[in-house]
Batch of 2 targets.
Target 1
Amino acid sequence: MTTIVRNLQLVRDRITTACFAANRHPASVRLLAVSKTFSAEAVADAASDGQRAFGENYIAEGVEKILALRGQPGPALEWHCIGPVQSNKTRLVAEHFDWVQSVDRLKIAQRLSEQRPPELPPLQICLQINVDGGANKSGLAPDEVLALAQEVAQLPRLVLRGLMSIPEPAIDFVAACAVHARARAIFDEINSAGVLPAPMDTLSMGMTADLEAAIHSGSTMVRVGTAIFGGR
Ligand SMILES: *Cc1c(COP(=O)(O)O)cnc(C)c1O
């Protein structure tokens, strides 16, 4: 067994344990393996153990891996763009990725919708929210989320799936839960407003350091890099 496969199994165990601790079904949390800076071979290694969903931050690097791994035996991989998307990169993203979790402006969403090739299924979208006003300034302020969610939900070649949050590292479990609870509250508020064509089903939060706190707070997708692929 390779180190990556062993690490992947340890991360799955962490997710299962966190789900039981939170009284949740383990199948209610998906694992996104964040492969940024690691090779296509590392991705193939994780895929050989059944991992399907991979996250990339840098678009050119991600597209290179997507093309390198296209046509591999086994079920198709699912690629998530989780890094900043500039206007001049939207076409590449729309043509190659399955999901974009880092949308925080209408203009970017409109371009992704216009540029999504007609032969591909709609692009799956999460809005990036900034719940802690952290130094990392991308992401929507809490009071901007509902309006953009309604606009994105109308775009023909996009499907609004949910919200993504990347808070600053918290000092401990309790502090991490408090920040994740804010994202969860925004998610619940928007869904219960009943103004979207369909409720959002994805709350993407939690990474290597804080996946237990994120699952405790209602995350449905954890994005894990270091604990699977090693330090960057
Ligand atoms: C790098 C990255 C991750 C993974 O972080 P780890 O701490 O390595 O697990 C998750 N989400 C985003 C948006 C990232 O940029």
Note: Residues 2 and 215 are 27 Å apart (CA to CA).
Target 2
Amino acid sequence: MRRAAAFLVLLLCLYWTRAQGESGGVTGNDITQTEVQSDILGVIATSDQTNITPDIWAELKELRDMAIKHSVELSNSKSKMEKLEQENTAIQARLTASENEMVKLKIENADLQSRVTTFEDRSSVLEARMNTSENEVEELKSENTDQPKVAFSLGLTNSGQVGPFNTDITLKFSKVFAHLGQAYSPTTGLFTAPVRGVYYFSFNIMDQRKNVWTGVYLYHNDKRLLLNDDYNDEHANNRISNSLALQLEKGDLVYMVLPAHRSVFDDANDHTTFNGFLLFPL
Ligand SMILES: *[C@@H]1O[C@H](CO)[C@@H](O)[C@H](O)[C@H]1NC(C)=O
């Protein structure tokens, strides 16, 4: 192609020179018309006319082929581009869907998190309450375990009448129905409070003698709490009973005393008894 263009430019130059010669422009030069003509012929001889034409056609054909090729490539690219655009649209749609899903999930997650937080709060409140309850249960358990078990229920004797004596005597109950905590001594007749607390006591006495006074004292340490007595003027069996609750310090004594000149009776039928138990410690 470049060769053809160069050749055309050369031809134009030569014709222009020749025209100048004919009009006498180069008359003064050493170059004669004959030399120029022979130059042209020389050039023509070297650039054979039969070789030029096929070259141009070939170049044109090549150009056309290239154009066709480019056109095809362009068309391919275009369809590829369209395909890519479609894919891109699809991907964008999926992306949007994913983003929406993500937003939804985020909201759900926040909701779940707040529910979890609420649950945790409630759970720690419950745990605190449970801890309190457990501690209380433990306290109650240890209170229950530590609480001394104190209870006695005693009969006086199987040998019948006791008294009368010239002085007051402490009654010594020797028959055991129940005796937990061993706080009563049948030897001394004294109940000794093992712990500070509230205790409950009750007694029954019976006398068979007629036309005499019977009666009994209940002592708290050296303090006489009560005198219960009665004159037996009609029936053989005269009975007295009473009960009371006492607040005692540890080591306090409680006991029953037969006053001087009084008597009580007991046998296997257990007419005369003394009972006591710890209600609760303090
Ligand atoms: C409950 O008790 C446990 C064990 O003593 C303790 O680790 C926990 O912190 C307590 N919880 C609360 C809420 O007080």
Note: Residues 151-281 form a domain with the Jelly Rolls fold (CATH 2.60.120.40).
